[in-house]
Specification:
By secondary structure, the chain is an alpha+beta fold. It has seven helices and ten strands. A hairpin with a 5-residue loop joins strand 7 and strand 8.
Length: about 210
């Protein structure tokens, strides 16, 4: 897993801190003073104010002219041609042009490994954010998800393994076709990256 999990959303409203605090079953979420962030910089960890063992930090970056968020979006659009499937490249290029805010969750693996509940806490915060503002996910080193949180775009990596919830866009209908992608099956991965919907659809399990 990369160091950043992001939500890219067309919804530019702020999510109340209290809503994220209620979502965490273990640990706490709190606001951290950070130059230029004005309350948009949050920490997730085992104890309030403990920045030495923090599990994750969260930044909300607006996307507008001459912003860091706009630079990130441009970089994401430029990266799309390095992976597939082609239908996701086209869909994401259009979607990313409409993004108004990026929630960037930076995780700290060493601190998370020290507490079993850390993973659940961080993903609970991500889930609460996604439920509040929607959007697509971007995982460093993994790819992009659609608004249903299924993998729709990735590039080939030698360390890919296991299965994941995925989807491919049927451009004739505008509908997402859901399936389980097996990274240990190189033929399935090749079919996904090439956008061979018929091949994927025939082998997908019911879900």
């Amino acid at each position: 897993m990369g160091d950043y999990l992001r939500l890219l959303t067309v919804n530019d409203r702020d999510v109340p801190l209290a809503a994220l605090q209620r979502a965490v079953p273990f640990g706490v979420v709190w606001s951290v003073d950070h130059p230029g962030m004005l309350g948009n910089y949050l920490a997730v960890g085992p104890e309030l104010g403990d920045l030495q063992d923090v599990w994750a930090t969260i930044e909300r970056n607006p996307v507008g002219p001459d912003t860091l968020g706009a630079e990130e979006v441009a970089e994401f659009i430029d990266s799309l041609e390095s992976g597939g499937p082609p239908s996701a490249v086209r869909w994401l290029a259009d979607y990313l042009e409409t993004v108004r805010a990026i929630y960037a969750i930076r995780i700290y693996p060493e601190a998370m490994r020290a507490r079993d509940e850390a993973v659940q806490a961080v993903f609970s915060v991500r889930t609460a954010l996604r439920e509040a503002v929607g959007g697509v996910g971007q995982w460093d080193g993994q790819g992009f998800t659609n608004e249903d949180d299924r993998l729709i775009w990735c590039h080939r990596r030698p360390d890919q393994s296991g299965t994941t919830r995925a989807a491919m866009l049927d451009e004739s209908t505008g509908q997402w076709v859901s399936f389980t992608l097996d990274f240990d099956n190189p033929h399935a991965v090749d079919a996904f990256l090439r956008g061979e919907l018929a091949e994927i659809d025939r082998k997908r399990p019911a879900d």
